Structure formats: C-alpha cells, structure tokens
Amino acid sequence: MREEIKAHITGVVFQIAARPGDRVAAGDAVIVLESMKMEIPVEAPRAGAVTEIRVAQGQTVQEGDTVAVLE
User: Fold this and answer.
1) pLDDT tens per residue, range 46-71
2) Residue 1 pLDDT class (50, 70, 90 cuts)
3) At 45, which CATH number?
C-alpha cells in the first residue's frame, strides 16, 4: 500500500534520514526539518520501504507537502 509522508510543519530540510530502498519501522525518522532553531523529525506512520524522497537538503517545505513515499 503506497502512502505519502507529509510535513506536519513548515521548515527547512535539515537531514534526509532514509533513502529510497531503506526499510523503516513505524516512528522512524525519514526526514528531519529545522523550524525555529528546533529539529523536528518527520516519522514513518507505519513499517515499510521508502520508495521516493521528494525533497533535498536545504529545501523549504510547507505544512502538508509530501516529503517521501512509503510502500
């Protein structure tokens, strides 16, 4: 089941913690955003394989933007 992982806050991509092909567990950080000098992880909602990363380090994302896709 394909599922988009969305940013829950506006911020700058500080770190890409998972790459396409990586297996993640529910709650694992996929992307880390920086907002207001804080690092905020965007976590996998369930276990699965990351199929796409749709952002680049340093990119600004808005709340609700898709940052990755989980299969």
Assistant:
1) 999 999 999 999 999 999 999 999 99
2) confident
3) 2.40.50.100
Whole-model pTM? 0.91
Longest dimension (CA), the chain: 35
67 in helix, strand or coil?
strand
Which residues fall within 8 angstroms of residue 42, CB to CB, at 6 or more apart?
5, 6, 7, 8, 29, 30, 31, 32, 33, 67, 68
Q: In total, how many domains does the chain have? A: 1
In angstroms, the CA 14 to CA 27 distance is 18
